[in-house]
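Pipeline run #58 for the internal structure catalog. This entry was flagged by the ingest filter as a single-chain record with no existing model, so it goes straight to prediction. Upstream metadata was stripped on purpose; only the residue string is passed forward. Reviewer on rotation: M.T. Logging verbosity set to normal.
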Amino acid sequence: MTDHATDLATEAFVAHRNLLFTVAYEMLGSAADAEDVLQETWLRWVKVDLGQVSDQRAYLVRITTRQALNRLRTMKRRREAYVGQWLPEPLLTTPDVAEDIELAESMSMAMMLVLESLSPTERAVFVLREVFEVDYGEIAEAVGKSPAAVRQIAHRARRHVDARRPRRTASLSETRAALESFQRALETGNPQDLLDVLAPDVVLLSDGGGVKRAALRPVIGAEKIVRFYLGGTAKAPGTITCEPTVVNGSPALAVHLDGELDAVMAVRVEDARITGLYFVRNPEKLTRVTSETPLTLR
């Protein structure tokens, strides 16, 4: 490839990089793996004869999807060997992501966990169709299926997701208000204040990756979660503080231990109360939250 051709390929890749990263991340739930997929996409892209490409965006999405599918299938072994519960890697995002309701919902911890229950091909089809509105023909090229088969897969995936998503997506202001109440309750340590903001059947999922203390199984029920939290803070080897942040397009809390980032807590809110708590402590998954530059996606 000539220098001029390389420059054109680089320009096209950079123009669509945020979109490609988001596609890979939503398929994999891991920013580190998404970056690897983008590297693999670039290595294939620079070998393409751009004169034969009519739609560069579609072609790049196709390469990215194929590479993400390959990685998703191999990641299954890693997930099976993972210590405790696995949660997606939280991403520090800009406010404009939260304003894109469809994108923010699809990136939320709750939805990312629903996507984990899909097959690799179902997940790819759902992400491309429902989040990015890619037409069935392009998706078919990306996943190696016929357009008719892709329509069936999309219908099956949508039905599966709809059965597991919240009845009503909480607004940004509702989520922020519930999280603020939760933060105040955490700071006072008053059990009743915590119970007031948690739904009775709330579920806590915590991910320590075998490195940090975390519950190996879901903790279900407000009272159990309050006991779990208060017991954990009593054993903490330092001072715990929380500050608001925005991850995956939604309000969240950054939890610090003696000033150092120790965890990120995201929430799922329904009817003004918290029904899901997602507590990520694995240090390998916190690098995207300590970054000074939030991601602007798409």
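catalog note: Strands lie at 198-207, 219-220, 240-247, 250-257, 260-270, 273-280.
catalog note: The chain is about 55% helix and 15% strand.
status: ready for reviewer M.T.
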